[in-house]
Design a protein that fits this description.
alpha+beta; 3-stranded antiparallel β-sheet; 45% helix
């Protein structure tokens, strides 16, 4: 049996919106309230939230749930907090709950959705990723400060700069507008911004973040990030995770126990030769070293700094 022409139109419309359609859109297509209810009863449509439907044949997804929440939240509802952080793929933000931000006067409860209300949701704080209205990266970081721990916030902050979603200077300017009343937890991000040297390069992985924090807690000097050496004959510089140039000490961190693939072996061999030729020493640490043997990692770095760092400790 062929589908009813209006159902074809509904499916076509929904296909452009992650399989979703709203009640006002269905009414504009010519369906009556009773016809909408019949399509729900027959299984053609599924109710996601009040006034928001999924065409049953459309595959469900996390992004679809997010869009459905913003549609149900009203005209000014936006994806926010950890949801926005995951959409921006910020480091450390995974398996996020669905969270939206709505104006304070908007009272809405949605199953499976965390609804935040605010008195301050201005045009500069709102963006769009694909079909989804979303808080900007800067606003997202300030909102997340209320719902994540400081270490995860620091990693997300580093990653936002690394991805060029926001600069340190822009975040400092945003802090003047966003920090304080109405943004619980924003003091954390202001603290991180004030402590952070804007000239320092951002880290590139969660493990690098953890190593930097381990060294900081141990009272050791902060390492330089993303050190580049330019060997003779190379078309571009070779980059290392962390290190101390005055002491000619490099730190390499990798999530794998070892590199076994041919390309990895070749890359590591070339890096080892560059280190020696430049007169540097290198310490290599794995994920297990960082997370299960932090004292070992700190001890190794401390000893190597003492071996070759008279200038570092002279002050």
């Amino acid at each position: 049996m062929s589908a009813h022409p209006i159902d074809v139109r509904v499916a076509r419309l929904a296909s452009r919106h992650l399989g979703l359609v709203t009640r006002p859109e269905l009414l504009r297509l010519g369906l009556t309230a009773r016809q909408i209810d019949l399509r729900v009863e027959r299984g053609f449509l599924e109710v996601v939230h009040r006034g928001v439907y999924r065409v049953a044949s459309a595959p469900p997804s996390w992004e679809q749930r997010v869009l459905a929440a913003t549609l149900a939240g009203g005209a000014r509802a936006v994806a926010s907090h950890r949801t926005a952080g995951q959409i921006f793929r910020l480091r450390g933000i995974e398996h996020a709950p669905v969270e939206i931000l709505v104006p304070r006067e908007r009272r809405v409860g949605l199953d499976g959705v965390i609804v935040h209300r605010t008195t301050a949701l201005h045009r500069p704080d709102v963006a769009r990723r694909g079909l989804i209205p979303i808080t900007t990266p800067a606003r997202t970081l300030f909102d997340m400060a209320a719902v994540i721990d400081m270490e995860t916030l620091e990693s997300a902050l580093e990653d936002a700069v690394l991805q060029h979603l926001a600069s340190w200077q822009y975040l400092m300017r945003a802090a003047e507008r966003l920090a304080g009343r109405g943004h619980p937890g924003s003091g954390l991000i202001v603290q991180l911004l004030r402590e952070r040297d804007p000239e320092t390069k951002p880290t590139e992985s969660t493990l690098e973040d953890e190593v930097v924090r381990l060294l900081r807690r141990a009272g050791l000097p902060a390492p330089e990030r993303q050190i580049e050496l330019w060997p003779p004959g190379f078309a571009r510089p070779v980059r290392f995770d962390l290190g101390y140039r005055p002491q000619k000490l490099l730190l390499e961190v990798d999530s794998r126990r070892w590199h076994g693939a041919r390309k990895d072996v070749e890359r590591n061999s070339a890096k080892a030769n560059i280190i020696v030729a430049a007169g540097y020493r290198a310490l290599h640490f794995t994920k297990d070293d960082v997370r299960r043997r932090p004292d070992y990692l700190v001890g190794c770095v401390d000893r190597e700094l003492l071996r070759g760092a008279p200038r570092l400790w002279a002050s």
